[in-house]
Amino acid sequence: MDLLFVLLINGLATGMLIFLLAAGLTLIFGLMDVLNFAHGGLFIWGAYSGVWMYHVTNSFTVGIAAAIVTGLVIGLVTEKVIIRPVYGNHIQQILITLGFMLVLQELIKVVFGPSQKAVAPPAFLEGSFMVGDIVLIKYRLFIILIGLVVFFVFAYIFKQTRIGLIVRAGVMNKEMVQSLGINIKLVFMVVFMVGAALAALSGILHAPYSGVIYAEMGLEFSILAFIVVIIGGMGSFKGSLVAALLVGCMQAFMAYYVPSLSLATNMLLMVIVLVFRPQGLFPVKG
Amino acid sequence: MNSLLKLNQVEAYINQYHILHNISFDVREGEVNVLLGRNGAGKTTTLRTIMGLNSVSKGTITYEGENIANEKPHIIANKGIGLVPEDQGIFADLTVGENMSVAMKQENAESTKRLEWVLELFPDLKKFWRKPGGQLSGGQKQMLAIARAYVNENELLLIDEPSKGLAPVVVEKVTESIQQMKDQTTILLVEQNFLMASQIGDRFFIIDNGETVHHGEMEALKTDKAMMKTYLGIS
Ligand SMILES: Nc1ncnc2c1ncn2[C@@H]1O[C@H](COP(=O)(O)OP(=O)(O)O)[C@@H](O)[C@H]1O
Ligand SMILES: [Mg+2]
User: Fold this and answer.
1) Which chain residues have CB less than 5 Å from ligand 2, an ion?
2) Which tens digit of pLDDT belongs to each residue from A144-194?
3) Is residue A111 part of a domain?
4) Which of A160, A176, A188, A282 to mutate to probe the B interface, most B CBs <10 Å?
5) Which of B62, B133, B90, B63 is nearest to A179 (CA)?
6) What is the C-alpha to C-alpha distance for residues B46 and B85, in angstroms, rounded to an integer?
7) Do the domain assignments include residue A279?
8) How many of the other CB atoms lie within 10 Å of CB of B96?
9) Model pTM?
């Protein structure tokens, strides 16, 4: 029972990190119809820039802020320089964003050095406490909390603000949104930047969780995010949360019981969803 | 009377296909002008081209004295042109109220007045304010699309086949409401339903194979059996 609970908390924490990465990916796909394989690059840049700032200032909060700012800035540049010329062409998008992903990954090694770096949680999040006879690791709860806060803040924005409504409307019908007088390019840019910032946030939060950062982790982790986007339904924010928690838990349980099969099971989950619900668990209507 | 919108020898492509060959007509302020023509003649493409959703390869589109050809759709929309597309373009997961909110750029006395007016015209929208747009009936969707295009202080509405797929009683209702909107706004209507077109249209333009081939007063067309047969397939 205790073990199951520990694995569940692990799964939820991993799931939240995948959610932060997948949320941007799903919105960028749903709204802009862009397949962004460079998304994992934002994840590692968030991790490295955040950790660097965290170590320099000795403040994890400042590290998180630095990661978010890095995400916004690289997001802005990526949208303007890399994505804008290839709107509407999936093949070009795949090629150029995959290429850019590798560039971002290699640049990490140039800027921060090629070796992996150890990262510990800040003192106030280190260690664990007991509830009854269950051990709760603080940092994992912290990740789950941040993930929930992000989810509810964005759910509020989508439901209650004009920009949120416009984004939801844009996912359903871009042309109509433009015909109602809204500059969709501007909306694209904002969404891309916010998505990039969430990926960077995922990266910095992931660093003390795994205890180590290295340049290739972006690509590895973003595979899970892609699986989540497909399972959740492309363009669905809620779907990305549900699917991410599902994949995170699957990952945690499999990693404990049959580690060699953990990625394969998630792939299998995706295939099953694709067969029975090709539009994903929460399809977005046109 | 002043012409609000004027197309002059407009040509347009969709991908590599030359769809509009020579479209010329003008829409006069305060009138309902109707585009007629067979299926596939290029009526929808004409409206989309005016809205900027399709690019112009030759010719000019003048709106209030300014060439808007190849402007971006949102800039054209903000000049006061509203589109009710053929498929209505309802945001299916958004409620009726949210569909209206996306359209309303600001909430001031003027826009509130327009909203109230249009909700009086279409009481169903008020009744189903919190219902997702995707769950409305065909007629209600059409009403929502028209209301959404109107609420933005637009001076010209482009309405694409509002009667399509609607039961006759609903068509009557939509016809009636468009008639009521005539006092408020200028309308360019695409309509295959000749009864509807003849009830509300002031003038007509016939498009055939991407060209405007005829125009005139609606009254005159009603009695011109030969023209109807040749271009509209109505005998
Ligand atoms: N996306 C497209 N690709 C190629 N041809 C198209 C496309 N959309 C419309 N067409 C063609 O353009 C012509 C005009 O279509 P349309 O403007 O929709 O006609 P209408 O509204 O008068 O029925 C038709 O022959 C149609 O087949
Ligand atoms: Mg048509």
Assistant:
1) B 44, 86
2) 999 999 999 999 999 999 999 999 999 899 999 999 999 999 999 999 999
3) yes
4) A176
5) B90
6) 12
7) no
8) 29
9) 0.90
Instruction: Tell whether A11 is covered by a domain.
Output: no
Q: Which domain holds residue A131?
A: 21-215
Give the closest residue to A15 by CA, choosing from A197, A193, A206.
A206
Q: Which residue of A has its CA nearest to B132?
A: A285
Domain count of the fold of chain A: 1
Chain A residues closer than 8 Å to B83 by CB: 179
- Looking at the complex, does the CB of residue A183 fall below 8 Å from at least one CB of chain B? yes
- The sign of the torsion formed by the CA atoms of A136, A140, A143, A144 equals negative
The ipTM value here is 0.93
Shortest distance between the Cα of B228 and any Cα of chain A, in A, equals 33
Among all ligands shown, which has an atom nearest to the Cα of B43?
A: 1
CATH number among 3.30.1330.60, 2.30.130.30, 3.40.50.300, 2.40.30.30, domain B1-80+158-235 = 3.40.50.300
Question: Mean pLDDT for chain A?
Answer: 94
Take atom 12 of ligand 1 and give the residue whose Cα is closest: B19
**Chain A touched by B89 (CB under 8 Å):** yes
Phi, psi at A35, each rounded to 5°: -90, 105
Tell me the per-residue pLDDT of B127-137, one tens digit each, with 9 for 90 and over.
Answer: 999 999 999 99
* Residues of chain B contacting A173 with CB distance shorter than 8 Å: 89, 91
> Would you kindly state where each structural domain of chain B is located, as residue ranges?
1-80+158-235, 86-153
Quick check: is A282 in a domain? Answer: no
